[in-house]
Write a structure and sequence with these properties.
The protein is an alpha+beta fold and about 525 residues long. It is built from 15 helices and 24 strands.
C-alpha cells in the first residue's frame, strides 16, 4: 500500500500561461484591510497567561521556574516527571530564561530550549517533554463559519494541510478529525489544539496577512530588524557581537545552542564585521552567511538558528481581490510556488503548503522568510494591477490553441479516450466530424516525483505523460475544470469525516506524502 504525492495541480501544470482573472467581468475590487496581523496566543490560551511580567532566571532550576509561575497565575504548575524522565530532563535542570514586560505564556514557550513543553487542563499547567506524545480530544463547533459560507470539508482539509501536516493519521500521524453535524471532534497534541483554535479564529476575521498564534511582540521585532546599526568588530566572540547588536537595536537576540551544535560553532567563535548605518537584518544575514546560520522570530525573541531548525508557521491571507473562484485560486498558488523557491513547496518535495479554505482566502504553511516573500509577491502583483492600462478584452471563445497537460501516464491514457466523451464530442475531429478542430495525443514525459511506500519507505517512481490538446479557448476551460474535478472530486461521502473537502484546494490532502524536516518522508 502506498500514498501518492500531491504531484499534480492539473489545471496549472500547463506549459502555456494562465492569466488570473482573465475573461471575467469587471468588478469592483475588494478592499483588503491590514488587520488583524496575528491571532494573539494569549487570547486563545486564557487563564491569566496573557498577564505581563518582568523576571530573569540565570541558571535557575526548572522546579524554581515552575514555582515562580505558580505564584503568578494562581493555579498549580506541576512537573510531569514521568514524561521528563523519559527524555532525561531533571527537575534540577538549569534554565536561563527571562521576560521583559511580556506575557507569562512566553516564559512557558521559551522552555522549549531545554526540550520542555506545556499543556493546560483541568485548571493545572503541566510541564513535560516536547516528545511526550500526549494527545487529547476536543470538540469545536464550526457552525458560525459554515453560516459565513465556509465548507466544513474544506475547513477540515485546510487544517490538516496547514497545521503540522505530518501529524495527521492520513499520512501516518496520530491526529484526526471527525465531523458530526457542525461539531468537529479533533484529536491532537495540546500545542496543535491551540494552533487549530487560532486558525478557526483567523477564518472568522482575517486581514491582509494574519499569522496564527504569533505574539504581538513579533510585530515590534520586525520593525526593529529594519533599525539602523553600526558594527565594527574584529575577532570579537559571536555571543558578544550578538549582545551588542541587540543592545544597539533594542531587539532581544539569542543564539540557539542546538543550532550551534549542529553547525559546530561555539558561542565564543571569533567574528569580524564592519557596517555603518545598515539594517539589523543585514548584519544578521552577514553573520549567518559566514557560520551557516540564519535567523527567525520565535517566542518573542530574535533567534539565530539553522535552516533545518526554522519553524514553520501558518498564516491566512486575504486575496479576494485577486481570486474569485477555484480556478483563480489554483493559478495564484502556482504563481507563488514558481516565483519564490519552488523546491521549498510540497509540490516539489518541500514542506511548504498552500491551501484555499474558500475562494480568496489563502492559507500558507511555511517559514517566516517564505511568508514574507509571499506577501511581497502579492503586494507587487496588486501594484502591477493598479498600474496596468485597461484594455478591451478580445473575445477568445473561438480562438484555437494547443496546450500541454502533464499527468501520470495511466491517467493520460484513459483521458485520451474519455475527455472527448466528457465534453462535446462534436468539437473533436473524427471520421464523423472531420472539420472539427479538436485533437488530442499523448507524449511520454520525464519520470515524476517519487512516491513512497509507507511500510517500507522505498521510493516508487511515477511515469508521466503529456496530453497535447488542440482546442478552442472555451473547450480548454472546460477541460481544466474537468481535470480538477477528476483529481479532487466534487464532494464527499457522508460520514467520511475529515477525508474530504479537497475540491478547489491546491493539491489535495489524501494523495500526498509529507516530507519531514530532517529529510525523511
Amino acid at each position: 500500500m502506498y500514498v501518492t504525492t500531491r504531484s499534480i495541480a492539473i489545471a496549472l501544470c500547463l506549459f502555456c500561461s494562465t492569466t488570473i482573472g482573465q475573461d471575467k467581468p469587471a468588478v469592483k475590487l475588494v478592499e483588503i484591510v491590514d488587520g488583524p496581523t496575528s491571532i494573539d496566543p494569549a487570547v486563545v490560551i486564557g487563564l491569566g497567561l496573557d498577564r505581563t511580567a518582568t523576571v530573569a532566571f540565570e541558571e535557575a532550576s526548572l522546579s524554581e521556574v515552575a514555582q515562580w509561575l505558580q505564584t503568578q497565575v494562581a493555579i498549580p504548575v506541576i512537573l510531569n516527571q514521568v514524561s521528563l524522565d523519559e527524555q532525561g530532563i531533571l527537575s534540577s535542570e538549569l534554565v536561563t530564561v527571562s521576560l521583559k514586560e511580556e506575557p507569562l505564556h512566553l516564559l512557558l514557550d521559551r522552555l522549549v530550549g531545554i526540550n520542555v513543553s506545556w499543556r493546560l487542563g483541568d485548571g493545572i499547567i503541566q510541564l513535560e517533554s516536547v516528545d511526550s506524545g500526549y494527545l487529547e480530544t476536543k470538540q469545536l463547533n464550526i457552525g458560525k463559519l459554515i453560516d459565513q459560507g465556509f465548507s466544513a470539508d474544506r475547513v477540515i482539509n485546510t487544517l490538516q494541510q496547514t497545521i503540522e501536516p505530518d501529524s495527521w493519521d492520513q499520512v501516518g500521524g496520530e491526529g484526526n478529525i471527525i465531523l458530526l453535524g457542525d461539531v468537529m471532534f479533533v484529536r491532537q497534541t495540546p500545542l496543535n489544539h491551540r494552533k487549530i483554535k487560532g486558525t478557526l479564529a483567523a477564518f472568522a476575521g482575517f486581514g491582509r496577512r494574519t499569522f496564527i498564534l504569533e505574539t504581538p511582540v513579533h510585530e515590534d521585532l520586525r520593525k526593529l530588524t529594519e533599525s539602523k546599526v553600526d558594527a565594527s568588530f574584529t575577532n570579537v566572540p559571536l555571543s558578544d557581537v550578538v549582545a551588542q547588536l541587540g543592545e544597539e537595536s533594542g531587539a532581544s537576540i539569542v543564539l540557539s545552542s542546538r543550532a550551534l551544535r549542529q553547525v559546530g560553532v561555539r558561542a565564543r567563535q571569533p567574528m569580524s564585521l564592519k557596517l555603518e548605518a545598515q539594517p539589523l537584518r543585514l548584519a544578521l544575514d552577514l553573520i549567518g552567511r559566514d557560520l551557516d546560520l540564519t535567523w527567525q522570530l520565535r517566542n518573542g525573541l530574535l533567534e539565530m538558528t539553522t535552516e533545518d531548525l526554522l519553524e514553520y508557521h501558518t498564516a491566512v491571507y486575504d486575496v479576494r481581490d485577486l481570486c474569485r473562484d477555484d480556478r483563480e485560486n489554483l493559478a495564484l498558488a502556482q504563481a507563488i510556488v514558481q516565483q519564490t523557491v519552488p523546491q521549498d513547496w510540497m509540490e516539489n518535495g518541500g514542506l511548504g503548503v498552500i491551501e484555499f479554505v474558500k475562494p480568496g482566502v489563502m492559507v500558507v504553511y511555511h517559514t517566516q522568510q517564505m511568508q514574507d516573500k509571499t506577501l511581497t509577491l502579492l503586494e507587487n502583483y496588486r501594484v502591477a494591477l493598479k498600474n496596468s492600462v485597461p484594455r478591451q478584452q478580445e473575445k477568445k471563445e473561438d480562438i484555437v490553441s494547443r496546450r500541454f497537460y502533464r499527468v501520470p501516464t495511466d491517467v493520460a491514457e484513459e483521458l485520451q479516450t474519455e475527455l472527448p466523451k466528457l465534453t462535446d464530442p462534436l468539437v473533436w475531429k473524427s471520421e464523423q466530424n472531420p472539420e472539427s478542430v479538436g485533437e488530442i495525443q499523448v507524449l511520454k514525459s520525464w519520470v515524476g516525483t517519487a512516491d513512497i511506500d509507507i511500510k517500507s519507505g522505498a521510493a516508487i517512481t511515477v511515469p508521466y505523460s503529456v496530453l497535447v490538446i488542440r482546442q478552442s479557448e472555451k473547450v480548454h476551460r472546460q477541460i481544466e475544470e474537468l481535470l480538477v474535478k477528476i483529481q479532487f472530486g466534487e464532494g464527499t461521502l457522508k460520514g467520511a469525516g475529515g477525508m474530504g473537502g479537497m475540491g478547489g484546494s491546491f493539491g489535495g490532502g489524501m494523495f500526498r506524502v509529507t516530507a519531514t524536516r530532517d529529510g525523511r518522508r
